[in-house]
Automatic annotation (TrEMBL):
InterPro entries the record matches: ABC_transporter_permease, MetI-like, MetI-like_sf
Protein name: Sugar ABC transporter permease
Predominant location category: membrane
Topology with respect to the bilayer: Multi-pass membrane protein
Family: Belongs to the binding-protein-dependent transport system permease family.
Classification lineage: Bacteria, Bacillati, Bacillota, Bacilli, Bacillales
Domain ABC transmembrane type-1: 83-306
Transmembrane segments: 24-45, 87-109, 121-141, 173-193, 224-244, 285-307
Keywords: Cell membrane, Membrane, Transmembrane, Transmembrane helix, Transport
């Protein structure tokens, strides 16, 4: 065997030995990558392809290009109304939840006794199942037997029961109240976690300088929790655009009959419209896929806008 042949054999053997240890990470990652590609990536790609077709789930698919998207944005008043309803309800519950969560966290954080009890009470709604929440609020705001109307009439604040769930604005307010009640404890816990990492030396220096409680809260606590507020705003926008459980269960839980969209579709959200088009009133899977991808683009746009508006500005040098 010549010298060149020996070098070739040795280099091949060294490459084989080097490849052996390097292949194990890929082998260990292969099950997850395969499962992700099969159950996550492929459905996402197939959904986009399906949005370019007209298909009812039974017959053959008909390629129609972007006609589903054109019809969705120009000839579907329910989609535009569902987007408008979602944005209105988000404007109701996001600021209120942020403000109340921050104030409740600040008050609870400085409690000497009962801190764990307050935390437990406020987190319980967050771990409550959405079905139970729908039953609770459907019962509370029912026109005939609702506890809210009974109290209003008993104390003389109203002559008769209010149609909370049949009025456009009050129905949206009830849905926003459900979201606030459910997520307030989560916001409180996140803010309290941020308060624990604030150095106490900052508060001690503020007290030495004569700073009052409100001034310390406004000038020290709130700025230092800015990043947490940005995180909560962005995640609230993402979750708000996917709002479905609260309105769906509110109009289909207590009474037993599902009223799609609420009174005059004023409680219809984009996800509810997507589910209705896909499985309830129709089976236009291509059109429903166009709704899903339009919602995805809206989530991306609104998430970027919310981050740009709430993120701290870097000082330009």
């Amino acid at each position: 065997m010549t010298m060149s042949a020996e070098r070739t054999v040795k280099s091949a053997a060294s490459r084989k030995r080097a490849w052996g240890p390097r292949m194990w990470p890929y082998l260990f990652a292969l099950p997850f990558v395969a499962a992700y590609a099969a159950f996550q990536l492929y459905p996402v790609i197939y959904s986009f392809v399906l949005s370019l077709h007209d298909w009812n789930g039974i017959g053959s698919k008909t390629y129609i290009g972007f006609k589903n998207y054109v019809q969705l944005w120009t000839h579907d008043p329910l989609f535009v109304k569902s987007l408008w309803n979602t944005l209105i309800m988000m404007a109701m519950f996001i600021p209120v939840t942020l403000i109340l969560g921050l104030l409740l966290a600040y008050w609870t954080f400085h409690l000497v006794r009962g801190k764990k009890l307050i935390q437990t009470i406020n987190v319980l709604p967050y771990i409550t199942t959405p079905v139970a929440i729908g039953f609770i609020f459907s019962y509370l705001f029912d026109w005939q037997t609702g506890l809210v109307n009974l109290l209003l009439v008993k104390f003389g604040w109203a002559q008769e029961g209010v149609y909370w769930l049949q009025n456009p604005w009050s129905s949206r307010a009830v849905i926003a109240l459900m979201v606030i009640w459910r997520n307030l404890g989560y916001f409180m816990i996140i803010y309290m976690a941020g308060m624990t990492v604030i150095p106490q030396d900052v508060y001690e220096a503020a007290r030495v300088d004569g700073s009052s409680g409100f001034h310390t809260f406004r000038k020290i606590t709130m700025p230092l929790l800015r990043n947490i507020s940005v995180f909560l705003v962005v995640t609230s926008v993402i979750n708000g655009l996917q709002l479905f459980d609260e309105p769906k269960l509110l109009y289909g839980g207590w009474s037993g009959s599902v009223q799609v969209g609420g009174p005059d579709n004023t409680a219809l959200t984009m996800i509810w419209h997507f589910v209705d088009v896909s499985f309830i009133s129709d089976t236009r899977f291509g059109y429903a896929s166009a709704i899903a991808y339009s919602l995805f683009l809206l989530i991306v746009v609104f998430s970027m806008l919310s981050y740009r508006l709430t993120a701290p500005k870097e000082d330009s040098k």
